[in-house]
Amino acid sequence: MYKIENFLNNDDIDVTYQMGAFRVAEYKRDLSVTKETAQREYFASQMGVRLKQLVCDLKQSPVTVQAGAMQWMIGDVNASSGIKGVGDFIGKSLRSTVTKETAVKPEYHGTGMIVLEPTYKYIILIDVGAWNGSIVLEDGYYLASEASLQHKIATRSSFSSAVAGGEGLFNLSLKGDGVVALESPVARNELIEIDLVDDELKIDGSFAIAWSGSLKFTVERSTSSLVGSAVSGEGLVNVYRGTGKVLMAPVDFN
User: Fold this and answer.
1) What is the per-residue pLDDT across 13-40, written as a single tens digit (0 to 9) for each?
2) Architecture of the CATH domain 13-248
């Protein structure tokens, strides 16, 4: 049995969002400042630039965490590598090579709690079940997920256009029912969520941070001909076709 004081019951810390095994703790202000930094920290806090931490309640679900993200743990917590044999290690190593994600993401089980490293980025919680059980992530956004979600490789439909557009060929995909936590440079209330029903979305740039696995994703010329692309001043665009969701940032932070 444990008791924690001056953390989630601290008047300067708010739990801003909760879903599944995850809670987002946000520090309303930073009191560990000097007279030289106090003004900067004050205005940063007023603009919502605040430290945040992801709190994982293992009583709700075992979780998988990005390697190196854990700060502290308490209670009955058992950690494993998440590797289930030689074949699984080879598969995860291959996925790591092509998606730029770490091969080994530790899994935590038990009834205790783990808290991840603080970040000034925004922590976004998504119920993958609400995305028809499959979501694809842009590189670098994955932070943690409930262990019920399977990690897969999503391959872009057009290899040649992806290379020409400077885009990667593979992305991390999560499948199943569970919650995933993303670490985003853009706040959740500024992200644009688009629902497609047998339609298509074209984006000029890497603004999409997540999309449904049911969507066909290609990189194509912005017009039907190379001459048309040159005249319009546009080059290659990311195209999402079918039925599903796209979560898009209004500005490019990649």
Assistant:
1) 999 999 999 999 999 988 888 989 989 9
2) 4-Layer Sandwich (3.60)
